[in-house]
Amino acid sequence: MLANIRIVLVQTYHPGNIGASARAMKTMGLTDLVLVNPRDFPHPEASRLAAGAEDIVDAARVVGTLAEAVSDCVQVIGASARLRSMPLPHFDEPDEMARDVVAQAADDPVALVFGRERFGLTNDEIRCCSHQVSIPANPDYGILNLSQAVQVLAHEVFTAWRRRPESDFRLARPDRDRRPSREQLGHFHEHLARVMRESGFITQPHARTEAQLQALFARAEPSRKELSLLRGLLASLEQHLPAPPDEGNGEE
Length: 252
Ligand code: SAH
Prior knowledge:
Largest sheet: 7 strands, parallel
Strand content: 5-15%
Helix content: 40-55%
Distance between the termini: 47 Å
Bound molecules: S-adenosyl-L-homocysteine
CATH architecture of the largest domain: 3-Layer(aba) Sandwich
CATH superfamily of the largest domain: SPOUT methyltransferase, trefoil knot domain
CATH class of the largest domain: Alpha Beta
CATH topology of the largest domain: Alpha/beta knot
Structural class: alpha/beta
């Protein structure tokens, strides 16, 4: 279960923060570290600050984008000190986030995502997330050091795991109750955008409308079964649309 909980650090500037985050993870039983485009890694400073958690640093995977880091995850929690304009579901209390994450992680991978030291996560990166969480802190100075933010949330997750309810020891959850991965949800949104264009509902790619619909479905938290129902509905609507003028015949 804890093995299904991934920590993702986006474009970390100081290699020491990567090592200190690995140490924070290991103290709380987490092992899966993914680094999105780190500035300078591998680096002796990362190994030095990892202390006894060098194995986590050595096993860290490096990828180019946040989407790649979380495509197989069913829940992606963006940690942010500030509320953004994206109306994603937001956990005001980290312990509520941790209970949900631990329950999801019984069957599928989930991720906690941390931003850059200087400017956190971009709006595009927040869009890769299913939820946001903030660590309540001093309103006059509420921004934690990156690895300390990792420590606080990893501790919440470990506590929720220690206290997980009996029901979490059950057999694997049936498919109809499982949430879709970010990749499956991404395919749904591509399909929805295509039908919106082909039906003339929008005449050109419309990022704002698409973002609003993404936020709507993020709040609805559809299961895999519900998502496949929606895919079926879109496919059926598509069959009744006139073929688009210059698209979709596969010719160069
Ligand atoms: N200067 C950046 C914050 C960088 S701190 C900004 O203004 O957004 C580095 C990362 O630590 C953040 O991106 C976030 O993931 C995490 N973090 C720091 N303080 C946090 C808090 N109070 N709640 C949740 N995450 C926090």
